[in-house]
Write a structure and sequence with these properties.
- The protein is α/β, with parallel strands linked by helices.
- The strands form 3 sheets. The protein has an 8-stranded parallel barrel.
- Helix 3 crosses helix 5.
- The radius of gyration is 18 Å and the shape is globular.
């Protein structure tokens, strides 16, 4: 299994201005050296739009590692801007593959680029819930794996550890990647943090424009969902809620890449 560094949703203008990718790799303190970098966002089109404006050429070139661009789902009002921005970012030679999270973007890009395309974590909609120990401990197979023939031409898939005992079979000619150590619990188009500075009548609107309030704010909980009082880490970061998942059984899965999200290490960098 090869390690990758997931910088999605963690880069802000100050971070890009103050650190190189290689410096971020050191700060992430990974168990092994990464073979690839992930940039972009799985969950927030507003963040992705901002990223495209402040991402600099020298930052992209501050590492020799290949880069995967992760693209969120764009609403109709941002779709044209989003497509143009994706094509602009794909012009960087270092970005040699792209991860999409909806079928529309998949269809658009397979006719617009010759770079490799992965199915992102939002394609895998299986229930996950750390609050229910019986569910989180059960053996479970990801349902979409039985229908991959529909997606002709994909190079890889990415998913989360939706339970501690996930079961998958080896896939031929497809790169299998898993996101660790945090599993996303839920996400949506309404951003709590984006509403902070807005008038009451404009708060909590789907996919509303923002000034990246998520740079300065996140929510962290230690909650016990069992009688033995074991504490679970739960984060609200940007538009998504994550929980820290047990990865003890990860070595038993036929996974090619471990995409590590250093949330604690990098989320508060200036």
């Amino acid at each position: 299994m090869k390690y990758c560094l997931n910088l999605c949703d963690l880069l802000y203008p100050s971070v890009v201005n103050n650190y190189s990718i290689n410096e971020l790799i050191r700060k992430a303190d990974l168990e092994n050296d990464p073979i690839r970098i992930y940039l972009g966002s799985s969950f927030c089109s507003q963040y992705f739009k901002h990223l495209g404006y402040f991402l600099r050429d020298d930052f992209i070139k501050s590492t020799s590692l290949p880069i995967t661009l992760t693209v969120p789902i764009f609403s109709q009002k941002d779709l044209k801007t989003g497509k143009n921005l994706v094509l602009k970012l794909l012009s960087y030679e270092a970005i040699d593959e792209i991860t999409v999270n909806d079928i529309g973007m998949f269809d658009f890009l397979k006719n617009s680029t010759d770079k490799k395309i992965n199915l992102g974590r939002l394609f895998f909609k299986d229930t996950r819930d750390v609050r229910i120990p019986e569910y989180n401990n059960q053996k479970k197979r990801i349902s979409l794996l039985d229908n991959l023939d529909f997606y002709k031409g994909i190079s890889g898939i990415e998913f989360d550890l939706i339970t501690q005992n996930l079961e998958i079979e080896p896939l031929e000619k497809i790169t299998v990647s898993v996101h660790t150590p945090y599993t996303y619990q839920t996400t949506g188009n309404i951003c709590k943090f984006a509403s902070i500075k807005k008038e009451v009548s404009q708060k909590f609107r789907p996919n509303s424009n923002c000034t990246m309030e998520c740079k300065h704010l996140h929510e962290f909980y230690l909650e016990s969902f069992t009688m033995d009082e074991n504490l679970n880490e739960v984060f609200r970061f940007g538009r998504a809620v994550y929980f820290l998942q047990n990865t003890e059984n990860l070595e038993n899965l036929p996974v090619d890449r471990n995409i590590v999200f250093p949330l604690k290490e990098l989320s508060l960098l200036d």
